[in-house]
Amino acid sequence: MSPTTDGAAPAGRRSALRPRRPRPGATAPLPLLLPALIGLAFLLVPLLALLVRAPWHGMPGLLTSSAVWQALRLSLETATSATAVSLVLGVPLAWLLARTRFPGRRVVRALVTLPLVLPPVVGGVALLLALGRNGIVGRWLDSWFGVTLPFTTAGVVVAEAFVAMPFLVISVEGTLRASDARYEEAAATLGASRFTAFRRVTLPMIAPGVAAGAVLAWARALGEFGATITFAGSFPGRTQTMPLSVYLALQNDPDAAVALSLVLLAVSIAVLAGLRDRWTGAGTPDAAAPHEKEPSSPPDGGTARGPLAERLSWRFGRKGPQAAATGGESATSAGPQAAARMAALVKERRRGGISAAAAAAPGSTASAGSAASSGAAGAAGTAGTAGTAGAGSAAGPTAVAGSSDFTDVSDVAGAAGTASTAGTAGAGSAAGPTAVAGPSDFTDAPDATGAAGTASTAGTAGTGRTAGPTAVAGPSDFTDAPDATGAAGSTTATGSSGSSDYSGSAGSSGAAAAAATTGSSASTRSVGAAKEGLDAHLVVDRGSFRLDVRLSVAPGEVLALLGPNGAGKTTSLRALAGLAPLGGGHLRLDGRTLEDPAARVRFAPEHRPVGVIFQDYLLFPHLSALDNVAFGPRSLGVPKGPARAGSAELLDRMGLSGRTHAKPRRLSGGQAQRVALARALATAPRLLLLDEPLAALDAGARLDVRAQLRRHLAAFEAVAVLVTHDPLDAMVLADRLVVVEHGEIVQEGTPAEIARRPRTDYIARLVGLNLYRGRAAGHDVRIAEGLTLTTTESLTGPAFVAFPPSAVTLHRDRPESSARNTWPATVTGMESHGDQIRVALTSTTGLPLAADLTTPAVADLTLHEGAQVWAAVKATQTHAYPA
């Protein structure tokens, strides 16, 4: 085959394309200029006539009459009220038409726009038949509530809203269709409900369109005549608006009619002035504003894990060394407690949302009759059952929690030294004072602490190590406890963990500084490992395309999804985030079922502990960097103060303390990527999804940002799933690769395994290898009729043979060299590949081949498209492996 390494730089940040302005002095052709001038005169002459014939000398007296001001006041009040009604009813209607699909949507849209083409008088008749005293609705309004609309001021508002609201609906619907609906999806992944997303994201982004529609509706309502006079009549001071006054004055006092018309003309000009920015494009944010230059090195300036792990320890449960201030800037005044408090509040609110959605945590084992308590401490002497540690010797004094159910305990502390039921320890060893959890259910306890600082009792523990005070879990269920810490300072945790089940306990440990675990107890990371991490079987049907992949990712692991366009990578990410419903399979995270179509279980995106970094980041353009990061916590119910303080601290840890108030369009590509990462992490996700996180960067910033992102992912102890087209991104960022083609997994393994043993043409192209498949018999692999390759490996049966393009040599005549693999080929193309020329060839059997040659070698061989050559590959430069 003929693989090529994609050396093209990724697409940079896209700037808005401005329309080209006409050249100065360009003249219009006469066939267009003449009708254009006639049309302009047709529109302007009547208005000029109005100005010429106006009674300017008597104008002050005409405009100061009480009848004029009464009609003007009534017109302004009713037009404003009708616009308000149009906004309250029309904006939701426009959103429904633009964002949802339902049967008969086209019919509804046609009916909504019908008043635009319907004669206003007909609209007035329709209103009378519907809302009049004998109308199909008006009769009930009159008999039940005593409300009569015809021939009242309220009737004027109804008539004007009937003809004006379609203008607003059309304007807002068009703006909604032009806006990017993915911002609403991004808001959902941050915990915002659909209404919250509409209120805080969609509405501010479409505000110019809403304002333009409101002005058009107001102007239409101000000039309404036919529906108003038919439905509400013409009663001075009650229903006689300015257009009605003009009509009546024209019959009796033409000068007054002209004066009133000039008033309406002035109002119309004011409306045009208000919409000037929309017509001319002035004031539109400059989408192509220059970005800040990305720093050439990471702003944290630390090592690959130390300072960064400390900066993000509030989220990931790391207890690394104290980090120095980054980039020469001091930390926020809120201190590290602000981010920790925000994280705790986010988790509490997220659990509350899940509970409200009837999502009881699976695997809960609280005893019957147990009482839930928040912030409770283990009482001295409380009866309970200590976790069995082995057999043979007595355990020391133990603080035992009884059969209570601790849900969301912030600081559950066992009473050090309190007497309780003695358990059994390892043979011949004595355990010191122990904080033991009984059959309780600890759900997401951020700092479940044992007897910290209690004196250790000396005794041999299996290997002769001294066992200090130990936090031992009984038959409890720890779900997502990021900092479940035992006794600080103990060096060895002894005994068995009994039947405890640590589910999703990021960074939890029996003892904070424990160096080893003896007896039959496994490490806290491995206990209950079957419930930790991601377990997903994604089945999504989309037309003729079917996605069917199985993913299993452990906490702390970064999984990269690779595949060609249309393979199903982004669909997989959307399914994990809840943005695309599953048609089958299941999705479990840390033992909790988030989606199972067979069981009719599905959590909405806002109820999933999932963070998403979209390909172009989708930072909300109307919010600052700080408000973007605080959006998720605020949507989950965290108060504004803690949310902003925690977000400011998180941005400071990302090296962005000086950019907190910058809008996204003022951020560089790397800065925007870090804000997007901070925004996703601010919601304390247990699953982080990254969709082409580096694709929006130019080549200059990509290297530095890739290194920064690698450090962030290395410190992230939950599950991370990455989608990328770039093999370098996958090799650098991921611990394990999954290659998807045509909706199915074709290969998975570590980057080294994938690079060494590709199993499809696509993977071979990614890693830059020639790949053939054939049948092996010893050292010979028969590839095709007339082509057999000799390898150093001895195999039997189906096999792959791979070798790099640099291993291929080309000759004009059949070579007499030591290379045992030679065959004729035809040059089909050449392209520059770094400092070499990559030559694409096709063998006589139709197999593609790629060879890398130096420029002088290409010149010596006088290669050109269609040239006949011989290819040679040494057996020692091939690699064969079972297919």
From TrEMBL:
Keyword set, alphabetical order: ATP-binding, Cell membrane, Membrane, Molybdenum, Nucleotide-binding, Transmembrane, Transmembrane helix, Transport
Signal peptide interval: none
Listed InterPro entries: AAA+_ATPase, ABC_transporter-like_ATP-bd, ABC_transporter-like_CS, MetI-like, MetI-like_sf, Mo/tungstate-bd_C_term_dom, ModB_ABC, Mop_domain
Pfam families hit by this protein: ABC_tran, BPD_transp_1, TOBE
Gene Ontology MF term list: ATP binding; ATP hydrolysis activity; molybdate ion transmembrane transporter activity
Domain Mop: 816-882
GO cellular component, one term: plasma membrane
Residue ranges constituting the ABC transmembrane type-1 domain according to the UniProt record: 72-273
Record's compositionally biased regions (Low complexity): 323-335, 418-439, 448-474, 484-510
Predominant location: membrane
Residue ranges of the TM segments: 30-54, 74-98, 110-131, 151-172, 201-219
PROSITE patterns the record matches: ABC_TM1, ABC_TRANSPORTER_1, ABC_TRANSPORTER_2, MOP
Sequence segments annotated as region (Disordered): 1-23, 282-307, 319-342, 357-400, 418-510
Annotated ABC transporter domain residues: 524-767
UniProt membrane topology term: Multi-pass membrane protein
Subcellular location: Cell membrane
Family note: Belongs to the binding-protein-dependent transport system permease family. CysTW subfamily.
Name under which the protein is recorded: Molybdate ABC transporter, permease protein
Species of the source: Actinacidiphila guanduensis
Taxonomy of the source species: Bacteria, Bacillati, Actinomycetota, Actinomycetes, Kitasatosporales
